[in-house]
Structure prediction request, 143 residues.
Amino acid sequence: MRRITWLIALVLAAGVLTAAGCGGDDDSGGSSSGGGTGTENDSGSSSSGGGGETLTVTADPGGAISWDKAELSAKAGKVTLKIVNESDIPHAIEVEGNGVEKETKTVTGGNAEVTVDLKAGTYEYYCPVDDHKQTMKGTLTVQ
Prediction:
């Protein structure tokens, strides 16, 4: 009977730790939008269908809490932010500013996208997982 109690406690603890690692939103006003893998390249910006732009940010594949770009630019309109994360560390990307706050799903070893309609101005993008924002943030300038 004692083994069953320990086994149940272990399974419950594993479930709690898994749920805690999923990340969260720093502001209850945000919304999430799932994404999937895409065929865009990692050049930072490329044209995509529908008249918008796709901006790609790549997380450090070695697991460091960093990514490859601290500044992005786009034209006003529909902009897709894509995170490429081939590491074992969970990451997402959130864009915030001028009344906009949207984020991708959190991914480990994959890609995620979020599409937003942006007006001219300056926006912040960052990883909303745990305290990753300290080193995984940047500025998106929309013209």
